[in-house]
Amino acid sequence: MLPFWSLAMNDSNFHFSLKEKSKPILKWAGGKTNLLPQLLKIFPVNFYRYIEPFIGGGAVFLSLTKKIPAIINDYNKEVFNLYMGILENPKEIIKNLDRYAKLYSEEFYYELRKNIPSSNYEKIARTIFLNKTGFNGLYRQNLKGEFNVPFGKRDACPTLYEIENFLKVSERLSSVEIFNEDFENVIDKSGQGDFIYCDPPYEPLSQTSSFNSYNSIGFNQQEQIRLYDSCVRASRRGACIIISNSNSKFILDLYKDFEIRKLFAKRAINSNGKKRGEIEEVLIFICEPNLRKFYFNEVKHYSSNELELSM
Ligand SMILES: C[S@@+](CC[C@H](N)C(=O)[O-])C[C@H]1O[C@@H](n2cnc3c(N)ncnc32)[C@H](O)[C@@H]1O
Questions:
Q1: What is the distance, to the nearest Å, from the Cα of residue 238 to the centroid of all Cα atoms in its chain?
Q2: Model's pTM, two decimal places?
Q3: b/e map of 276-297 (b: 16 or more CB within 10 Å)?
Q4: Is 26 in contact with 79 (CB distance < 8 Å)?
Q5: CA-CA distance, 106 to 134, in Å (whole number)?
Q6: Atom of ligand 1 nearest to the CA of 74
Q7: Structural domains of the chain, with CATH
Q8: Would you tell me how many other CB atoms lie within 10 Å of the CB of residue 155?
Q9: Strand-strand pairing, 70-73 and 49-52
Q10: Rg of the chain's alpha carbons, rounded to an integer?
Q11: Beta strands in the chain (DSSP E)
Q12: Closest protein CA for atom 18 of ligand 1
């Protein structure tokens, strides 16, 4: 890795852009597309490598403009396969999607949900098809680890892909390392010059309120503490970390020694339709004080009052 002072001399600001970004291939619970304008304003302007340990639909990663080195990761095997497949052979996935679009019906949806194809590119097309035609763009597994979202009941098959975007995402992935591991292994790879954006399953605001079951294992408070520990270790090695999470008491207590900003997000996925709308969430900044000048081009520390007003 390059030494810190040579990084600071690189002209590597403005890594993200709303205009040039590619779009997520999957609709994903907790997707960050709506929050991007707020996030990009407060992300670091200078870093050598981008790391996203909970990639999901990848809205943030796909707004990176320059082909700087990056690591993306998700514990979900289907998400991992999707990015690998789009990198290796997007046209083969498109071929299968065109075939599935012609077969669109409720019956076909349940048939494909039940029977996983054996070829890898068909499997990836299945992931996209079920995601786009299932109910509300949810990804949910039962305790056996099987995808169990019901049919979305649209009259006609929705657009499954946009060819230009598909090829753009494929091109973007060519300078990226893609992993299918637990977040801790990926965060442990980081060091000075790395910006890590963590968007884990959120700590529920109440026992019934939030969706955070992306897989059959779930993400409990022990996992949140494990994430906290690995981020603190990464910052001691010189990485800069920003974490999204809910504005829950548990999270505010856990990160009480760090800077916390509140954001307001529009969320469509809530089992109770009346509660859909704006949910308060937080961004946590973890960065050694002597490295802030490099990552953010500033040394300012926010007072808690300023943070709440600043958005
Ligand atoms: C909130 S979503 C990320 C959403 C993403 N930022 C987007 O814009 O679509 C959280 C992701 O964490 C993944 N995940 C859950 N547990 C994990 C673990 N232990 N290690 C790595 N990824 C995990 C889930 O599969 C899910 O894709």
A1: 22
A2: 0.87
A3: eeebebbbbbbbeeebbebbbe
A4: yes
A5: 10
A6: 22
A7: 35-75+181-296 (3.40.50.150), 82-161 (1.10.1020.10)
A8: 6
A9: parallel
A10: 20
A11: 49-52, 70-73, 176-179, 194-198, 240-246, 259-267, 277-286
A12: 182
Distance from the CA of 186 to the center of ligand 1, in angstroms? 13
Q: Which residues does the chain have with pLDDT short of 50?
A: 1-13, 299-311
Ligand 1 centroid – CA 198 distance (Å): 9
What is the pLDDT, as a whole number, of residue 12? Answer: 38
**Interval 191-205: pLDDT, tens:** 999 999 999 999 998
From residue 200, how far is each of 130, 170, 183 by CA, in Å? 23, 24, 9
Q: Ligand 1 center to residue 55 CA distance, Å?
A: 6
Instruction: Please give the distance, rounded to the nearest whole angstrom, from the Cα atom of residue 300 to the centre of ligand 1.
Output: 31
Pocket of ligand 1 (CB under 6 A): 28, 30-32, 53-54, 56-57, 59-60, 73-76, 79, 182-183, 199-201, 214-215, 219
With H, G, I as helix, E, B as strand and everything else as coil, classify residue 186.
helix
C-alpha 58 – ligand 1 centre gap (Å) = 10
Is residue 201 classed as helix, strand or coil in its secondary structure? Answer: coil
Among 196, 214, 215, which residue has the most ligand 1 atoms within 8 Å of its CB, making it the best to mutate?
214
